[in-house]
Amino acid sequence: MAGRVAARAHTNIALIKYWGKRDEALYLPTSTSLSLTLSSLYTDTRVSFDDDAFEDVLLLDGQIQDAASTAKVTRVVNLFRERYGVGSAAPRVRVESHNHVPTAAGLASSSSGFAALATALRALFEERYPDAPRMSDTELSTFARRGSGSATRSIFGGFVEWAYGTGSEDSVAVPVDDAQWDVAMVLVALSTQKKKISSTYGMKHTADTSAFYPLWREVSERDLDDVRAGIRERDIDRVGAAMEANCMKFHATMFAANPPFTYLTSRSLAVIEYIQELRAHEGLSVYYTMDAGPNVKVLCRRSEQQRVHELLEERFPDVTLFDAVAGPAPRTLTEKEWEELYG
Ligand code: PMV
Fold it and tell me: According to the UniProt entry, what is the EC number of this protein (predicted)?
């Protein structure tokens, strides 16, 4: 009988950014990053062995995906085939994925996507090959990493670091804090269009050409220390200030690339300005960060989230807002849950 397993993984937003690979094949980062896993944005993925098929198949929201997207999935599946000692003898895999995140809009759907894929594949391979050594969550994060760097951090809930590490085995996700305190996010989706410059290309171009890039690791580590201290003290203002500082340095590396580029738009800047205004005049603990897209993610107190949401809605009535609190680690879904959701 063909095995079949489904899993759900949540997206994460980086407070300290990952921006560059020191090893492109192994997806080893040039610096340690730190993120918050989010409750309301996630990917559900079901994987099954197809003993008769010749190729892996990928369906996203019911649509069969092209060869390039399927190849990225196959690359990860092959690592599992190797890890479970079955190499190319293992049957092909069918992957069905449903995104509850606007895909590729800088809302980090690749993080939840590859984390859900890796979680489901671990369960599938363990079921089929029970004699192979068990895989810990820490090891699992190295498999998610090989799909997309940011997916490493979605293997745990709350605040999570992705360690620089000395090599492939210890460049892993490390849970830092469950974030079950007065912290939340409001995501301001200014555009749900697919981004023009992929993060893979953007980070490579920046690392290769930016005059500011040689400073990136060092300045990022200082911001990281500050965010860590803020989390330890449960001081959202300290966390938020260091997050903003890191975000602006991250975007500055792109302004200094050759040729220069930016993911920010005039609308991103308008939201930033408004966040600064809310902080100065409304006394709210609100802080912004942006990734490889124009959307702004606002860190705020959970106790002030509703007010922040309302104020943003009033000022920017045509944008979509998503509220989130700290999300959990991935989990497998039962057959019944899957059927109820996707039929
Ligand atoms: O792993 P990728 O390709 O999704 O790259 C993510 C890069 C940023 O989102 C910009 C930063 C981060 O650490 O998530």
Answer: 4.1.1.33
Determine contact, residues 117/147, Cβ cutoff 8 Å: yes
Provide the 3-class DSSP secondary structure of residue 3: coil
Which fold, 4-177+334-342? Ribosomal Protein S5; domain 2 (3.30.230)
Q: Is the CB of 14 under 6 A from ligand 1?
A: yes
pLDDT of the residue at 108: 62
Question: What is the CA(305)–ligand 1 centre distance, in A?
Answer: 25
The stretches of the chain forming alpha helices (DSSP H) are 67-83, 109-128, 137-145, 199-209, 213-233, 236-255, 266-282, 305-315, 335-342
> What pLDDT shows up at residue 173?
98
Domain layout of the chain by residue ranges:
4-177+334-342, 184-324
3-state secondary structure of 316: coil
292 lines ligand 1 (CB under 6 A): yes
Q: What is the torsion angle, in degrees rounded to the nearest 10, for the CA atoms of residue 168, residue 170, residue 171 and residue 176?
A: 160
Task: Categorize the per-residue pLDDT at 104 as very low, low, confident or very high, splitting at 50, 70 and 90.
Answer: very low
Atom of ligand 1 nearest to the CA of 18: 13
Domain 184-324: CATH superfamily, name plus number: GHMP kinase, C-terminal domain (3.30.70.890)
**What mean pLDDT value characterizes the chain?**
95
Find out whether the beta carbon of 44 lies less than 6 Å from any atom of ligand 1.
no
For position 103, what pLDDT does the model report? 58
